[in-house]
Amino acid sequence: MCQLLGMNCNTPTDIVFSFEGFRRRGGLTAEHADGWGIAFFEDAGCRLFLDYLPSSSSPVADLVRSYPIKSKNVISHIRKATQGVINLANTHPFQRELWGKYWIFAHNGNLTELAKLEPSRFQPVGNTDSEQAFCWLLDQLAQQFSVMPSRIELHQALSRIAAQLAQHGCCNFLLSNGETLWAHCSTALHYIVRQAPFTVAHLSDMDLTVDFSNETRPNDRVAVIATQPLTDNETWTAMQPGELLMFVDGEIQKT
Amino acid sequence: MCQLLGMNCNTPTDIVFSFEGFRRRGGLTAEHADGWGIAFFEDAGCRLFLDYLPSSSSPVADLVRSYPIKSKNVISHIRKATQGVINLANTHPFQRELWGKYWIFAHNGNLTELAKLEPSRFQPVGNTDSEQAFCWLLDQLAQQFSVMPSRIELHQALSRIAAQLAQHGCCNFLLSNGETLWAHCSTALHYIVRQAPFTVAHLSDMDLTVDFSNETRPNDRVAVIATQPLTDNETWTAMQPGELLMFVDGEIQKT
Q: Are residues B13 and B92 in contact, defined by beta-carbon separation less than 8 angstroms?
């Protein structure tokens, strides 16, 4: 099983604190050492950093720490290979373009009977179940909508698509188009929304503390989603199996 | 006008020497300071590093120097904005997936009357003429071939497509699917093929010398393509206006 990390904010924010704990799960505090990746949306653009080295020792991960990119939507993934060899083509997150928007997807789980999820327009480059599921998901969206629909219509469509994917196995995933971040839980996803009054947070994976009241402005709001809680002194909410949440501007949108 | 750099090899090779001179054109030895990017194919996978900071001072460019990624196909671009504001979405190279392969494209020039190059399946995310041309190019390929055709068929199709693009203005471009690298010249592209016996090369943009005989094996072959020659003691070949060359395993393929 892999580890997922997502961030959705109302103002561009760096993910250095959360990533510092998260990356240690790639080879130090957990065994997920089969590559990693992180995608930062910056307005319509997107930067995707991938490496097949463990995130705990990757030079690319060092860059992410030393060059704090500010973003409203971030998705990161640390891989423990279940299907597909360890190489760059099989490293999450995956990126495609649909309706003139970049879409980023990362998956934790194991899907089977993939012959029933044969994509057409979007084709996997590597040989993971995850990338095939992503391509099939985008195919479904492209078939249903010729231009990008409203957020609510997208959410309704993704709810149906995620439920179909989940019939094939464990399907925790994060998905974003740079405006909205969707989180789907099969077995394990937790989230926290940080907003004023900001407090002090302490990482679970290393002895590092940050006082968010020194790092933020009063109106800032940041949602962080992770496979397991990243801090040991805050209250994270466990998502329910089958639940699909839509985060916009750092908060859950009602549907 | 922007600056292009491409490399195509028969064995995975790092581009550190060429990139060290090339990056200086982004803000130091030339004025192309409106962002830059570099794409490395590694088998089917691809790593794309983008930054809107000048390449001469970018932390991401520092990473490319300190973490020498070995690749058989590399495309890099330094931007001097002509159309489209300076942001990540407008930063070359651009990436899309077609037929289960990643395609990378970078362009130097200025195209007009883009309404005649309206793409459908592939849509630009930013607002440059270059990304629109790339999307249109892929649309043409996707319409002509439902699965990836032979290299020769691709070359013939790209010859027609490049000629159509060139009717809209200056169209120097580099394109690769990780197996083949195409270079199209409208006004300025130069190349060199390095193979045994390897010699000493000296950069034009800084006082740096490398003795390739110490860095290579006898059977290595590396083609480097750049807007302007990167070294001042080797013989580069100027491409002709309208010429499309196809590089495979470090050499030009006859068509």
A: no
Chain B residue numbers with beta carbons less than 8 Å from the beta carbon of A47 are 49-50, 88
B151 by DSSP, 3-state: which? helix
Q: What is the pLDDT along chain B (255 residues), one digit of tens a residue?
A: 689 999 999 999 999 989 988 888 877 776 777 889 999 999 999 999 999 888 888 888 888 888 889 999 999 999 887 777 888 999 999 999 999 999 999 999 999 988 888 878 999 999 999 999 999 999 999 999 999 999 999 999 999 999 999 999 999 999 999 999 999 999 999 999 999 999 999 999 888 899 999 889 999 999 999 999 999 999 999 999 999 999 999 999 987
Q: Concatenated DSSP letters for A164-223? A: HHHTTB--EEEEE-SS-EEEE-SS--EEEEEESSP-EEEBSSSS-EEEGGGT--TT-EEE
Inter-chain CB proximity B125 and A43 less than 8 Å: no
User: Which chain A residue is nearest to residue B51, measuring alpha carbons?
Assistant: A47
Q: Which residue of A has its CA nearest to B64?
A: A60
Instruction: With beta carbons under 8 A apart, name residues in chain B contacting A123.
Output: 97-100
- Give chain A's domains with CATH numbers: 3-252 (3.60.20.10)
Q: Give the number of other Cβ atoms within 10 Å of residue B213's Cβ.
A: 12
Any idea how long chain A is? 255
H-type alpha helices, B54-204? 59-66, 129-144, 151-166
Structure tokens at A207: 């002895």
Buried b or exposed e, range A116-129, using 16+ CB within 10 angstroms: ebebeebbbbbebb
A185 is catalytic: no
Chain B residue with Cα closest to A131: B100
**Most B CBs within 10 Å: which of A40, A47, A98, A135, as the mutation test of the B interface?**
A47
**Is B125 in contact with A101 (Cβ distance < 8 A)?**
yes
Distance in angstroms (rounded) separating the CA atoms of residues B241 and B11: 30
Q: Residue B148: which of A125, A70, A147 has the closest Cα?
A: A125
Rounded-to-integer distance, Cα B255 and Cα B253, Å: 6
For residue A78, which phi and psi values (nearest 5 degrees)? -115, 130
Distance (Å, whole) CA A241 – CA B223: 53
Strand, helix or coil for residue A97:
strand
Q: Which of A42, A66, A98 sits opposite B88 (nearest CB)?
A: A42
Ranges of beta strands (E only) in chain A are 3-13, 36-42, 45-51, 71-78, 94-98, 101-108, 172-176, 181-184, 190-195, 200-202, 209-211, 221-226, 237-238, 244-248, 251-252
The nearest CA of chain B is from the CA of A122 a distance in Å of 7
Inter-CA distances, B203 with A200, B17, B181, Å: 51, 8, 23
